[in-house]
Amino acid sequence: xFEHRSQALISRAQFLRRVATHAAIATGVVAGSLLIGxxxxxxxxxxxxxxxxxxxxxxxxxxxxxxxxxxxSGKLFATGYALFSGIVFLTIAAVLIGPVLHRxxxxxxxxxxxxxxxxxxxxxxxx
Length: 127
Description:
127 residues; mainly alpha; Helix Hairpins; elongated
């Protein structure tokens, strides 16, 4: 998916396509996670669609619940969904930051190679 350190840096257009692809993946993960939350609150608590959407969005965004949960199944679902949402947040952050961080590190590596490569690295190791 990403170029090897021995390969040249991809063009800006290719990089922007890569970022757009990762943003689309992140959007899909958010939409899927939101759907899971809406269906879970709808089925476990019997909430109306709009309330289930609000509750799922607030939990997924890390803001916290807006309605008092009344059923055991609703409370258990909310517990699992809150933990799931935390993992989704970290995953989305990694998916969005990945291409930018890779490009930065790849460019940094290429700069080292152009300015002496092994000699530059050896000089740093001696310090």
